[in-house]
Amino acid sequence: MATTTGERFDDRGEDGPASTVSVPSTDGRDAAVRNGGDRAGGHDVGRPGGDVGRGDVGRGDVGRGDVGRGDVGRGDVGGGGDVGGGGDVGGGGGLAGTARDTRLIFLRYVRQRMRSKVGVVFGLTQPLLYLVLFGPLLSRVGGVQGAGGGNTWRAFVPGILVQLALFGAGFVGFGLIADLRSGVVERLRVTPVSRLALLLGRVLCDTLMLVVQAVLLLAAGVLLGLRAPLWGIVAGLVFVALLALSIASLSYVLAMMTRVEDAFAPLLSTVTLPLMLLSGIILPMSMAPGWLDAVSRFTPFRYVVDAARAAFRGDFSSSAMLEGAAVTVVLVVASVALGTHRFRKENT
Q: Do 59 and 37 meet the contact criterion of CB atoms below 8 Å apart?
């Protein structure tokens, strides 16, 4: 058998240190092809002589195409400019890299939501119906415990805000199921983007949408007769925003566990309805019988509702505020940690 010789191509790539890959040529020789970050600097994939370069592999699908600067770098996840801004999604490590990744994911989903304003409007339908059709009945009853100053709206509106967070943030998992089905999550998983950023970017967008809806709901409440101190309203919005962040994280966890709407929807309804009834959203649980009040104390959302009502009364030093703040922080930390763990598990 004849002895073959080889050629070495010293063609360095553009983006990184060179490495050597042995590729058999068409005439039986081995071509040692030097390969940089973009795979090489040649032109064809299978041309005799061994250039592995700027075609489909070099700067096409792998180098700067679908993955390098196409799908993730400058694309929506693939091509328009939502995730990347001009560079890589996961181009850096540490806290700064996570913050940058979070901002890029956040902006992508904000743009997506702004293209679908109908969802923002319809998300207000149920809380507005409670506010307009049920609130006036309570004002006729009068003397609702926890209202303070005889203003029944101070007890009712904070509960409706928590209801908005519970249902509005609870249903965001449907969007993740759609992304799982369409392959968006799969494409993001192959990037070096932080898994914490994949979660935070989405939930921060969801929280922003909920805060906008809450402000509109508050404006309607003021028109109907709500009177509360400004800083109390601000504190109530902070509680609602943090609660929405934690609920959205848990919704994504459930979505990744079920992965289909037929399983996610009944599970979500089974969980949210008892939480709404036991949290004192409509009326304070202090008005409930002793046994029901005792059961509701095992519901963390009850403490958030009580804290929001205390804030609307201007009672910032009450035990309800302190308990609500502590429970809210624990909810946020636990739900974000669980959601991040689930996103990382999806990558394995």
A: no
